[in-house]
UniProtKB/TrEMBL annotation:
GO terms for biological process: D-ribose catabolic process. Catalyzes the phosphorylation of ribose at O-5 in a reaction requiring ATP and magnesium. The resulting D-ribose-5-phosphate can then be used either for sythesis of nucleotides, histidine, and tryptophan, or as a component of the pentose phosphate pathway. It holds the Pfam family PfkB. The gene is rbsK. It is an enzyme of class 2 (transferase). This is Ribokinase.
Length: 303
C-alpha cells in the first residue's frame, strides 16, 4: 500500500494570456476552482494508478474541506484527516496560453499537520511506500520518515515546492524526486547547472534521485551507478499544472507493485510508467481532473 502524507488545497485557476509581471494587472480569460495541493494530487494520482492509498492530511472546517474530502473518498482513498482551526489551504494558479504556470500557496490548515497519532505512525510503518512533499511542517516529515525507517517502508520525498531540506533528512530517505529547479536549489548550485552534475551531488547524500525535466523526460540515478535517461513522450501540452504530482503519484504506485524497489532497474521501470501518466496529464486541463487511470496509462503505453 501507499501512504501519502501532505497538503490539500483548493486551487483557484485563472487562465491568462500571459502571467502578470510585478505591478501589472491582467484580465483572466477563464476561471475554475479545483481541489489540489501536492499531497492531495499525489494521493489521487497513486489511487488512479491502482495503488491502495491512505492520505494523512489537515483540512479546515469549511466547505473547501468537505469538497476535498468528498473527492478523495470518491477516488477510493482511505482519508486520515484532521480538522484544524485554520482555513483549508488554498492556491492561486495562473496558466498562460502556452500551458506554463505560476502559483501562490496559502498553507492554512496544512501548517497544522503536526503530532502524528500512533495509528498514523503504524499505517506508515506497515505501508510499502511513503510519499512526502514540503508543504507540510518539516518536523512532521521527519517523524514520518523515522516511522518508515523502523520497518522497510520505501520513503519517496518530492522536495517541492523548492526549499532547503536538512542534509540528515536526505540521508534517510530512499528516493528523492525533484524538478530541475528544485534539484539546483537542493544541490546549492545555480539554475542551469547540468542535470548530470546535479544528480551526482544529490545522490551523494546516499539516496536514489529522480530529476524530472519537463518535456525532456527524467534522469534516474542511484549512488555509484551511471544515471539512466528516460525520455518524455511527445504530446501536445495544454496545462502542465500538476505534471510533477501526476508523475510522483504514479511513480509511487508503480514502486509499490515492484518487488525490489531499491534497484535502479525497478526505479527506471516505475519512472517509465510515471512518464506515461504525466504525459497524459499535461494534455488535459487542471491538476486532479487531468490525472489518468491505470487503464488509460496502459492503453497509452500500448498504443
Ligand atoms: P514539475 O511539474 O514538478 O515542474 P516537470 O515539469 O519536470 O515537473 O514534469 C514532470 C514530468 O511530467 C516530466 O518528467 C515528464 O515526464 C512530464 N511532462 C512535463 N511536461 C511535459 C511535456 N510538455 N510533454 C511531455 N511530458 C511532460
Amino acid at each position: 500500500s501507499v501512504v501519502v502524507l501532505g497538503s490539500a488545497n483548493l486551487d483557484l485557476v485563472y487562465e491568462v494570456d500571459r502571467i502578470p509581471a510585478p505591478g501589472e494587472t491582467v484580465l483572466s480569460r477563464g476561471f475554475e476552482a479545483f481541489p489540489g495541493g501536492k499531497g492531495n494530487n499525489q494521493a489521487i494520482a497513486a489511487a488512479r494508478a491502482g495503488a491502495d492509498v491512505s492520505f494523512i492530511v489537515a483540512l479546515g472546517r469549511d466547505s473547501a474541506a468537505d469538497r476535498l474530502a468528498e473527492q478523495a473518498t470518491g477516488a477510493g482513498i482511505h482519508l486520515l484527516d484532521r480538522r484544524a482551526g485554520a482555513p483549508t489551504g488554498s492556491a492561486i494558479i495562473f496558466v498562460d496560453r502556452r500551458g506554463e504556470n505560476s502559483i501562490v500557496v496559502n498553507s492554512g490548515a496544512n501548517a497544522e499537520l503536526v503530532d502524528l497519532t500512533a495509528a498514523e505512525l503504524r499505517d506508515i510503518a506497515s505501508a510499502g511506500v511513503l510519499v512526502l512533499q514540503l508543504e507540510t511542517p518539516i518536523a512532521t516529515v521527519e517523524a514520518a520518515v523515522r516511522a518508515a525507517k523502523a520497518t522497510d517502508t520505501a520513503v519517496v520525498l518530492n522536495a517541492a515546492p523548492s526549499g532547503a531540506v536538512p542534509a540528515e533528512l536526505l540521508g534517510q530517505i530512499d528516493i528523492l524526486v525533484v524538478n530541475e529547479h528544485e534539484a539546483a536549489e537542493l544541490a546549492g548550485e545555480p539554475d542551469g547547472t547540468g542535470e548530470r552534475s546535479l544528480l551526482s551531488v544529490l545522490t551523494g547524500h546516499g539516496c536514489a534521485v529522480i530529476i524530472t525535466l519537463g518535456a525532456d523526460g527524467a534522469l534516474v540515478g542511484v549512488p555509484g551507478e551511471s544515471p539512466v535517461r528516460v525520455a518524455a513522450l511527445k504530446v501536445d501540452a495544454k496545462d502542465t499544472t500538476g505534471a510533477g504530482d501526476a508523475f510522483v503519484g504514479a511513480f509511487a504506485a508503480a514502486l509499490d507493485r515492484a518487488e525490489r524497489s531499491a534497484d535502479l532497474s525497478a526505479l527506471v521501470e516505475a519512472t517509465e510508467f510515471a512518464t506515461a501518466a504525466a504525459a497524459l496529464a499535461v494534455q488535459r486541463k487542471g491538476a486532479v481532473p487531468s490525472i489518468p487511470t491505470l487503464e488509460e496509462v496502459r492503453k497509452f503505453r500500448e498504443a
